[in-house]
Amino acid sequence: MNATVARLMTWFHLGSTQKSIAELDALVENVILKEDFNPADLKNFSTARENRRLDDSVPTDIDAPKVCTKEAEAAEFVVEGLIYRELLDVMIEAFQSPAFEDFHLTPFESCWDPQHGRDPDDPDIQLDAPDGPLDEHGLPPLPDGHQVMYGEIYTSKPMLKAHSELPQTATPHLETIIAAYMFYSDSTHLANFGNASLWPLYTFFWQPF
Question: What segment(s) does the record annotate as region Disordered (predicted)?
Fold first, then answer.
């Protein structure tokens, strides 16, 4: 038994008896063996301090609706105990994760040719090198008979237009992209009895996959 395993087993068998074998295996597999686990980050670690950070919250003001009242004169309702995470932190974690390799970084237009495959002598029309002018979304004219497919945000006209307006970087091979957030919220019931509930706000990116 090496020193690492010996220390881990000593910790497991000393102190609280509430620890289980499954929990220890999960600690090793899901924490210690992960590529982003860095023991140096635990220097001066304090469980109490990190718990306070997790429980930290801020108040926020919401303008209460009122008929025939200007927005500047609307009453404000203070919501205490708002727990949130910085959107920049969410973006950094998502873009540094392995899933980032599968993100759609460049929006595109999805089209359908109803006649495709019906005539073997009719070749596909290439749209990757247009000679004519582009529209306001940075796209060439749609060939006759083709239909635009609507579905994901990364194939939408507004995203294509925003992407075409991105400033070009002077650094070679440095891609400029749009990180578009999508938000969703609904009430979550917390108990089988009573009316305890939360109203979480979810965010995710339009890029996957």
Answer: 111-136
